[in-house]
Amino acid sequence: MQVSFLEDLKNDKGTLVFFCIKNNPLEKYLSNINTKSKGFINKAIKISGLEYNNNSNVELILPQHSKADRIILIGVDYSKINNVYDWGRLGSYVTSVLNTKKIKKIKLIVSALEKIKIDEANILYGMVLNTYRFNKYFTEKKKKRENHFNKVTLISKNHKIIKSKWSRYNALKEGVFLTRNLVSEPSNNLTPSLLAKEAAKLKSYGLKVNILDEKKLKSLKMGALLGVAQGSANKPFVVSLEWKGNPKSNTYDFSFVGKGVTFDTGGISIKPSGGMEEMKYDMGGSAVVLGLMKSLALSKVKSNISAVVGLVENMPSGTAQRPGDVVTSMSGKTIEVINTDAEGRLVLADAVWYAQKTFKPKNLIDLATLTGAIIVGIGQEKAGMFSNSDKLAALLDKAGKEVGEQVWNMPIDSSYEKDISSDIADMKNVGSGRGAGSTAGAIFVKRFIKDVNWIHLDIAGVTWAKSDKPMIPKGGTGFGVRLLEEMVIKYINN
What sign results for the dihedral spanned by CA atoms 185, 188, 191, 196? Predict the structure, then answer.
């Protein structure tokens, strides 16, 4: 979507969009038309029954005393807008209206009101997120999920300030769209090597990217990650990324670690066939990390950030890891592999260890589509959060509520440690029974966390949307990019 900014409505041709805010006067341009036409605008609002609920509109075709082709009025109840996410939802609704009407471009006129502060940048962000479509593999145009809307000119007296703020949200959009594209790709076109190449492209944004191949992983003794990969013909990779936004410091404020299982059959502990095609997005954690790093680089965030993604494919074969095998992780700790379908935590074990050893960050956050149990526990509206730091967890929780990517704090205390005890190794990779499956996975990862503030995010329920949601067309969600970007900003400003 092309976005431009103007101070005044010098040309009122085309499609004009206005916000009508409950209990507030009409925008100046509308008020003038209303006066000239003896109350035409007010009559139209009354007759149409415009509801001020942030989800209603009135369309005026060839309006009197205007050169516009049409004017669209959006009803807004300011009392129901509590955070930036609500402004984004409003913007997303505008895009839905425009697409329904097959409108390609608009002028969005935002007037300054005394007691109302409109968040234009987040409205634009919501508008642009709802334009996303993944149509890459359709050969017939009629099957594509079309997006007609592609251009907005925002008109406001505060256009310079809004334009400055928009640069951050435009960078966020780029990161979210990258994440959505990656999780939407079929696994035959996004093997570990191909995903590593996608990561390498981020060098063009000023990121330092280092790709470790299988030979290097063996020299680093990443036995947990390599064990997962050994059944596949597609070789594993680990990719690290660095952004130095604060050259005066040698310390990394954050390291983000992502699980990148480009396809998960379950290995020898093979999954049922029903729904297995969805396992193409088992690399969702790595996709979020790459999208986040792109956004942070584009916005030139003033912080030092590192990232690590572990890229493997989990396949059954004559060389595949077996249930009962014991592997030695990079940390030196041994793991009895009870279930080869609990492979993501094995990847994370070596990835988080490598991140800590290489970058020594103040804070570490890992993301993984780790367990179906998290969906059973809390559904698909929130990510499960497990942390050893109340302060860091509170910061992420606050960020999530503000931007609409919420997390739910889950238990991870020592009472669960016994659940992954092994009779022949330092630990096993699954819990003892059906209960607390997500916590068992988090407790496992915790065994590889040293002296660092840490959060584990289980994003299995929020990585893919099976139906349209506000700002999220059906498919890959990009959940986590804005959440973590917001937290980085809050951390810098605290």
Answer: negative
